[in-house]
Amino acid sequence: MLRLWPPAFRASHSTDAPPALPRAVLPALHRRHLLRLAGSVASTRLVASAARPLLADGSPSSAVAADSVPSDYVGYALVPRFFPETGHNVDGEFLAYVRHNGGAGEFGYPVTEEFWEPSGASAAGRMVQYFQRARLECDLVTKRVTRSPLGELLVRPQPAVSPAPEARFFTETGHNVMNAFLRHFETAGGVEVLGYPISEEVEENEHVVQWFEYVRLEWWPEHPPAHRVQLGLLGDEHLRRTAQQVPAAAVRRAAPLEPVREWILPPPQPPPARPQPPLLVPILYYHHVPSQQPLRTQIRAFKRAGRTIVPLGRVVDAVRGEATLPPDPLVLTFDDAWESQFQNAAPVLQAEDVPATFFVITRYLSALAGYMTWDQARMLKERGHEVESHSHNHPRLDTLYAADEGAAVAEIWESLAVLESRLGRSRRLFAYPDGRWDDAVVSIVARIYRGAVATGGGALQTQDLMYALRRIKAEPSYAAASLLKQMV
Ligand SMILES: [Zn+2]
User: Fold this and answer.
1) CB 173 within 8 A of CB 229
2) pLDDT 10s digits, 260-292
3) E-strand spans in 279-426?
4) What pLDDT does residue 403 have?
């Protein structure tokens, strides 16, 4: 198991034994500590003090302020998040869950702090937090956040009925969903988000509503068309009903907890889809491109030799068993984001209609003379090339990791966060600066990237080398014949 909390970082959990759980609201520090312990990603969510710059040049990427992020987001968030609207904090796994499942738009604002309650399922109990439209539970043993079935808890399910015409019928509960409610159900995530219907459409408080396991859909015809289906405030209603069981300290307006900057990471990359025999795919890597003609000559020679130039992302997919490649594939990569690549390689690639992969040093773009600007990198991407990470400052990662793990983690993750905040989603490919890597470095890269390239020659790519794909050194001045000879 990797130790991921070097001095520059405060780990999101400690290795101390958890404290005994009092049967009341836990003091703020304990609560945060416990929730982090409960987190399924505790070992990979690093917390850096908000006051402390992450990198030597003090340029951490900005933390997200939005309360909702895509499930594959890589970057920072300020945690906990305080909602002045209701005066409550959301932290730890609850915040991660809310961010990845629709934010305040889906759940409403928090109406309590998180609090501990006993649970029949486990001796450790669970943490609970109410939102206007939901109640979230975090089981301290299974470490999972789930949504309480407030629909079921608030109403007795109606008896099953027969399928109705023009409706989607759910045999599981014997109820129909139709019209605008069905459209909302299908676009909002279906059974996973709303649960099964537990009633037909009924009239309550002068609104047509329908109950599901987790939500109540309401029809508000007086609203603009996009807002006519509303989610009922089931969290508020359940909290009112069970108020005497909720610690008063959790319901009172709270002071904002001190925010810190914390990594948000997507779920780890899955292993390859299926075993795949080794693939012979030469991957060339270039640096400077002083002029256009030599590269043009090379690319034409590669084509004449029957080579089909493909993007690296497709090769990574193929090695993973998720894509196929044409016969005799070839990949062109360009390292370090030299401006000469934009000036001389990009026009040739466009004229020859071949894709390439550019590995950029994110802090150098628009900052150092001789390197591309962010606008140039964006143009490469718009022309169909891959623009991927080559670290933030181009350090030797094996030695950096040994000296300062946190700095190495930041180099590897920060550069992707910066790259994607500037250019949008990448293919999540990485090139090791100077081709230097070791197992510790690979484990950090593999946490968020789909594949990585090394140097050292050779063209045989295997699943074992998903994070150290082989590359062949190339310069535009090399004879095409000698490069072709290395490809077999
Ligand atoms: Zn480099």
Assistant:
1) no
2) 887 888 888 888 888 889 999 999 999 999 999
3) 279-280, 283-286, 308-309, 329-335, 357-360, 386-389
4) 94
Cα 287 to ligand 1 centroid, rounded to whole Å:
8
Q: Using CA atoms, how far apart are residues 258 and 49, in angstroms rounded to an integer?
A: 10
Three-state secondary-structure class, residue 224: coil
Q: How far is the CA of 360 from the centre of ligand 1 (A)?
A: 8
Does residue 30 surpass a pLDDT of 50?
A: no
Q: How far is the CA of 364 from the centre of ligand 1 (A)?
A: 11
What is the per-residue DSSP string for 116-175?
A: EEEETTEEEEEEEEEBSS-EEEEETTT--EEE--HHHHHSPPPPP-PPPTTSEEETTTTE
CA of 390 to the centre of ligand 1 (A): 7
For 59, residues 6+ apart whose C-beta sits below 8 A from its C-beta are 53, 363
Residue 56 — pLDDT band, cuts 50, 70, 90? very low
For the chain, give the mean pLDDT. 85
Residue 377 confidence (pLDDT) above 90? yes
Q: What is the pTM of this model?
A: 0.70
Tokens of 402: 């040994």
Asked if 335 and 290 count as a contact pair (C-beta separation under 8 A), the reply is no
C-alpha of residue 248 to centroid of ligand 1, in Å: 57
Structure tokens at 362: 């994110």
Cα dist. 71→146, 365, 449 in Å?
16, 27, 15
pLDDT confidence tier of residue 64, bands split at 50, 70 and 90: low
Question: What's the CA-to-centroid distance between 25 and ligand 1, angstroms?
Answer: 52
Domains, the chain = 10-148+242-264 (no CATH), 279-486 (3.20.20.370)
In angstroms, the CA 59 to CA 86 distance is 33
- Closest by alpha carbon to 161, among 149, 151, 169, 153? 169
pLDDT at residue 7 above 60? no
DSSP at 327: S
Contacts of range 415-418, beta carbons closer than 8 Å, 24 or more positions apart: 415/361, 415/362, 415/363, 415/389, 415/390, 415/391, 416/74, 416/389, 416/448, 416/449, 417/61, 417/74, 417/75, 417/76, 418/61, 418/362, 418/363, 418/392
The torsion of the CA quartet 190, 196, 201, 206, rounded to 10 degrees, works out to -80
Residue 281 CA: distances (Å) to CA of 48, 271, 339, 466, 483 = 40, 20, 27, 13, 13
Q: CA 207, CA 201: separation in Å to the nearest integer?
A: 10
